[in-house]
C-alpha cells in the first residue's frame, strides 16, 4: 500500500505548483496585502491574523474549493520508474489499441480534407470575419452545404474497437466455462457488482430521501423535499464545493441546480472566465477549421432534431466552436492516455517547422458529441458560464467515454460492468438476447457513450447527472443501463430478433431513473 | 468425475547475482520490478554468514494483483524497501535485514485463468543463470534512502512545472495553416 505521508507531500507539491500563478493566487496576495491595513492586525501575530481575516472574508473557502477541484484532476501517483504513459494507462495492450484507433481517425480526417479539397485550417478573410461576428448569435439560421461532410466516426465504430480488445496474456480456449465472457467485452477488469455498488452509493438506498422519488406530487413536501431545499440553499450560500458534491448525491432542486453544479465544478463568474471566452470567440472569428463543419453537421443531425434541444442550436455552436480552440483543454492529456493529433507548420519567417496540435484543443468531435453540451443549456443561458461548466464536465468525465482505458469510469469498464450486472442478475434474459443475436451491449452502448443524453427526458437526465457529479464517477450510467433492461425484461423475453429488441428499448423518454436505480440496486435479491 | 491432466510448461528461473562475485558483501536497499501478470511474489536471498552461504526468505507471498482474474496490478511497477518507513508504491518491508547478500531469487506465483482447476503454477528453482545486478552510477544507497521523500517531491515539481504554464495561443506567429495530420 502507498505510504500516505509520502503520497500526500507529493500531491501537496503538485497542487501548490498548479495553483501558483493562477488568478486566484494573485487575488489572495492582493487580499492579504489589503488585510495589513486593518487595525486588528498585530505584528506579533501577523500570520494568524491575516489567515483569520481571509477565512472570515470567504477567501479561505475559495482556496479550499480550488484545491478540491485540483484533487479531482490530479494524475494518479507515479512510481519513479514508471514512464508517463504507464501512469495514464498501465495496460500496454489498451494503449496500443488507443494509438491504432487514433491513427484510423487521423487517416479518415486527412482523406476527407484531401477529397474535398478543404484545408484543415485557414485564416478567414476580413469580410468573412465581419459577417460571422454579425451573425454570432444566430449561426443556426445558416444552411451551409454539409452534404459532403461525414462524421469522422460514430459510436458503433468505436464499439467495434472495444469488442476487439484482447489481453495478449490470456489464451482463450474455445469451450465456454463458467467464467467465460457471454458479452462483447473480452477483457477482465475489476468492476463492481451489486453489493459493492450498494456500498459505493449508500445515499441511493431505500432509507434516504431522493429527488426524483420523494419530490413526487403525491408525497407531502415536509417529508423530505422542503428540508432538502432548505439545506441546498445553505450549501449554496456557504460556497462549499465539497458540501455541494455531497449534497447532489440526493439530487439537486431545479431552482438550485445551476449554482450547485457550478460550485461542484468550481466554475466562477470571474471576469477572467468571461475574458477567456471572448478570446476563444475571437479565435473562432479569425480562423476557420475543418472540424467546425463536423460540429455543424453533428448539431444539425442530433440536437436540432431533438424535441428538447433544438431551441438551443445557436448556443451549441457558440460553445463547441470555442471549445475546439481552447488550448487549456490540452491539460487533460496529463491524465488521458489519448494523444492529440499534431501537424507541422512552417513559421512565417520560414526558418523552422513547428509542431502544432489540431484542433487546438486536441479533441476531434464524433457523431453525437454535441449531446454532451445540450442538456446544460437548460441550466445556463450565459454563454461564458455554459462554456465553463461544459469544459469542466468534459475534462472530468466525458473524455472517458470515448477513449480506450482501464479506468473504472472509462468506457471499457462501464460496458463490462453493464454486461456483468446483466449476466449476474438477469442471466435468462442475457442468454435469450444473445441467442437471438441481440447482444445487450449493442443496444445499450449508445446510451452509455452519451451518458444517456438525448435518450432520457431532460429532467430525468439532469437527476442522473446530479449523481455523476455527486459520486465523481460514471459508473451510475452502467448501472442505469442494466436497470433499464431489468425494467423491460418481460417484453424483451418475448422478442425474437435484434430489431424487435431495439424497438422495445427505443423510447426511454417516459422512464423515471431514480426509482429504476433504487429498485435495481437495493430491491434486487443478491 | 475423473481428473483431467493439464499440460503446462515450467520455465527455468533467472537468478540475480548481486554485486561483484569476488566481493561478497552487499546491502540491499531497494528492489524494483515491473510486473506482468504475477499474482504473488516471494523473495529469497542468499546470505554469506560465518563463511557459509544460506538461503533465507526475506519476503513471502506478497500480493501484487488483488484479483488474479482481473487486470489491476498486472502491468504495475513495484518497489521493495528494506525499511518500514519507506513503504512506497506498493512497496513493503523485508522480513529481515538484506545484508551480506550475494544472490537473489524472485519466486513469481501466477494463477491459471480458470480457478476451478485450482493449483497455482509456480516457477521452481533449477540451474541458475548468472546475471549481475547493475549498481553502476548509483549514489550510496544510505544517503539516497534518507532523502528519498524529498527527491520525489522535487521530481514531481520539475515534472509539473513543465506542463503548468498554459501558452494559450495555438498558432505560430499568426499562422495556422495545417496541412496534414500525423500521429506523434
UniProtKB/TrEMBL annotation, chain A:
Transmembrane regions listed in the UniProt entry: none
Residue intervals of the Rab-GAP TBC domain: 251-472
InterPro entries: Rab-GAP-TBC_dom, Rab-GAP_TBC_sf, TBC1D19
SMART domains, per database record: TBC
Gene3D superfamilies membership: Ypt/Rab-GAP domain of gyp1p, domain 3 (1.10.472.80)
Pfam families named in the record: RabGAP-TBC
Annotated protein name in UniProt: TBC1 domain family, member 19
Source organism per UniProt: Cyprinus carpio carpio
From TrEMBL, chain B:
Database matches in InterPro entries: Nicolin-1 (IPR040235)
Domain of life: Eukaryota
GO cellular component terms listed in the entry, alphabetical order: nucleoplasm
PANTHER family to which the protein is assigned, alphabetical: NICOLIN 1 (PTHR31239), NICOLIN-1 (PTHR31239:SF2)
Protein name per the record: Nicolin 1
Native species: Cyprinus carpio carpio
Lineage: Eukaryota, Metazoa, Chordata, Craniata, Vertebrata
Amino acid at each position: 500500500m502507498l505510504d500516505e505521508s509520502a503520497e500526500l507531500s507529493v500531491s501537496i507539491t503538485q497542487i501548490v505548483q498548479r495553483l501558483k500563478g493562477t488568478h486566484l493566487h494573485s487575488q489572495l496576495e492582493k487580499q492579504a496585502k489589503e488585510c495589513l491595513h486593518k487595525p486588528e492586525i498585530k505584528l506579533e501575530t501577523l500570520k494568524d491574523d491575516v489567515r483569520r481575516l481571509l477565512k472570515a472574508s470567504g477567501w479561505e473557502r475559495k482556496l479550499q474549493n480550488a484545491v478540491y477541484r485540483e484533487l479531482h484532476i490530479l494524475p494518479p501517483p507515479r512510481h519513479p520508474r514508471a514512464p508517463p504513459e504507464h501512469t495514464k494507462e498501465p495496460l500496454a495492450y489498451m494503449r496500443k489499441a488507443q494509438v491504432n484507433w487514433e491513427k484510423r481517425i487521423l487517416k479518415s480526417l486527412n482523406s476527407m480534407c484531401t477529397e474535398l479539397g478543404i484545408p484543415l485550417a485557414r485564416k478567414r478573410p476580413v469580410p468573412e470575419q465581419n459577417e460571422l461576428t454579425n451573425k454570432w448569435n444566430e449561426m443556426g439560421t445558416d444552411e451551409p452545404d454539409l452534404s459532403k461532410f461525414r462524421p469522422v466516426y460514430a459510436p458503433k465504430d468505436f464499439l467495434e474497437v472495444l469488442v476487439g480488445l484482447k489481453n495478449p496474456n490470456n489464451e482463450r480456449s474455445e469451450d465456454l466455462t463458467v467464467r467465460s465472457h457471454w458479452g462483447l467485452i473480452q477483457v477482465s477488469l475489476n468492476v463492481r457488482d451489486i453489493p459493492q455498488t450498494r456500498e459505493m452509493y449508500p445515499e441511493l438506498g431505500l432509507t434516504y430521501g431522493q429527488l426524483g422519488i420523494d419530490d413526487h406530487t403525491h408525497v407531502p413536501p415536509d417529508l423530505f423535499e422542503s428540508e432538502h431545499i432548505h439545506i441546498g440553499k445553505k450549501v449554496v450560500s456557504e460556497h462549499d464545493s465539497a458540501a455541494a458534491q455531497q449534497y447532489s448525491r440526493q439530487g439537486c432542486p431545479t431552482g438550485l441546480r445551476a449554482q450547485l453544479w457550478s460550485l461542484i465544478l468550481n466554475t466562477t463568474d470571474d471576469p477572467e472566465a468571461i475574458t477567456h471566452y471572448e478570446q476563444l470567440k475571437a479565435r473562432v472569428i479569425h480562423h476557420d477549421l475543418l472540424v467546425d463543419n463536423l460540429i455543424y453537421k453533428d448539431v444539425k443531425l442530433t440536437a436540432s432534431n431533438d424535441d428538447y434541444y433544438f431551441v438551443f442550436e445557436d448556443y451549441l455552436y457558440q460553445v463547441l466552436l470555442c471549445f475546439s480552440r481552447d488550448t487549456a483543454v490540452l491539460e487533460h492529456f496529463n491524465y488521458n492516455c489519448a494523444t492529440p493529433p499534431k501537424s507541422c507548420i512552417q513559421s512565417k519567417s520560414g526558418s523552422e517547422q513547428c509542431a502544432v496540435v489540431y484542433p487546438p484543443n486536441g479533441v476531434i468531435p464524433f457523431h453525437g458529441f454535441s449531446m454532451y453540451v445540450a442538456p446544460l443549456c437548460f441550466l445556463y443561458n450565459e454563454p461564458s458560464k455554459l462554456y465553463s461548466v461544459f469544459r469542466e464536465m468534459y475534462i472530468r468525465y466525458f473524455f472517458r467515454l470515448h477513449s480506450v482505458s482501464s479506468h473504472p469510469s472509462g468506457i471499457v469498464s462501464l460496458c463490462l460492468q453493464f454486461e456483468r450486472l446483466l449476466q449476474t442478475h438477469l442471466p435468462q434474459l442475457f442468454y435469450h438476447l444473445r441467442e437471438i443475436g441481440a447482444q445487450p451491449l449493442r443496444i445499450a452502448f449508445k446510451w452509455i457513450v452519451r451518458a444517456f443524453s438525448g435518450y432520457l427526458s431532460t429532467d430525468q437526465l439532469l437527476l442522473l447527472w446530479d449523481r455523476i457529479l455527486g459520486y465523481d464517477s460514471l459508473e451510475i450510467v452502467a448501472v442505469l443501463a442494466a436497470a433499464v433492461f431489468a425494467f423491460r425484461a418481460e417484453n424483451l423475453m418475448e422478442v425474437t430478433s435484434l430489431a424487435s429488441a431495439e424497438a422495445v428499448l427505443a423510447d426511454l423518454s417516459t422512464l423515471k431513473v431514480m426509482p429504476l436505480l433504487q429498485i435495481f440496486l437495493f430491491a434486487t435479491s443478491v | 468425475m475423473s481428473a483431467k491432466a493439464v499440460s503446462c510448461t515450467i520455465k527455468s528461473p533467472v537468478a540475480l547475482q548481486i554485486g561483484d562475485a569476488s566481493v561478497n558483501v552487499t546491502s540491499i536497499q531497494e528492489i524494483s520490478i515491473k510486473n506482468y501478470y504475477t499474482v504473488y511474489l516471494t523473495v529469497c536471498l542468499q546470505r554469506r554468514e560465518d563463511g557459509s552461504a544460506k538461503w533465507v526468505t526475506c519476503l513471502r507471498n506478497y500480493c501484487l494483483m488483488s484479483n488474479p482474474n482481473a487486470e489491476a496490478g498486472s502491468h504495475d511497477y513495484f518497489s521493495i524497501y528494506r525499511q518500514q518507513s519507506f513503504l512506497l508504491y506498493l512497496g513493503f518491508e523485508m522480513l529481515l535485514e538484506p545484508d551480506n547478500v550475494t544472490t537473489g531469487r524472485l519466486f513469481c506465483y501466477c494463477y491459471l485463468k480458470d480457478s476451478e482447476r485450482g493449483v497455482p503454477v509456480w516457477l521452481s528453482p533449477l540451474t541458475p543463470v548468472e546475471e549481475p545486478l547493475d549498481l553502476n552510477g548509483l549514489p550510496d544507497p544510505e544517503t539516497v534512502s534518507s532523502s528519498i521523500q524529498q527527491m520525489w517531491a522535487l521530481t514531481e515539481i520539475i515534472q509539473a512545472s513543465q506542463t503548468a504554464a498554459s501558452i494559450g495561443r495555438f498558432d505560430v506567429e499568426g499562422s495556422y495553416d495545417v496541412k496534414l495530420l500525423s500521429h506523434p
